Predict the 3D structure of the following.
Amino acid sequence: MNIDIKKLEENLCNVMCAEIKLRPKNEELVLVETPFYFADGDPYQIYIKEMPGGIIRLTDMGHTMMHLSYENNIDKFREGTRGKILEQIKSETFISENEGEFYVDTTIEALVLNIFRLSQGLTKVNDLTFLNRARAESTFYEDLKEQLLNIVGEDKIIEDYYYEDMENSTDYPIDYKIDGKYAPLFLFGIPNRDKARLTTIILERLLRAKADFDSLLIFSDQGTIPKQDLARLSNAGGEMIASLDAEADFSRKLTRRVSMN
């Protein structure tokens, strides 16, 4: 290799350090300007704060969570799969948290390293919003159950139900059976194409068995399901809800079918 590693290292250091600027905020805080931004273009807020014992604290002063709360329910960031990922982020990037404030305690010598370490941690926390939008399968089912329980009493719901009058019923699980006004309501959560196809098969088997039921299909994002799969599902199934984010639509269509007695 003909690359001068030392010279390359010096050039990289000069370029990266040039991207970091310090500006006094007040008598207690120094603002650290970095090349890192939220999706809406706002810069990360990172500050230097002197702590007792000569410790330097790099902190976001709680700004990251406050910024994300404008368009997200940040309480969900601490629950279920998202909560586990948040704890993993803090462990991997060596950042600490206190009531929504993310910080790293450092020495002067390790200041630059920890600026990038904290920035990396804040970037990963920010990425939890993409998990919220994309809804990985595990969080979709968690969110579906949470919304369902908020609308319908737990005593009216059977999770992972099997229609026993159908041959090999255990091969065709129904996500939820709910006491309906006129017939049992079978509710299916559909986060992806595979579940759409499985739901079509289950509904067709139920129809073949002449089961008396109504059905409600809730998608993570209906737009991601191929048209042919969606058409087959539409032929077999009942009413659909295009996205779990359509909470008002979900509540209206569900309560219209559920027995509240």
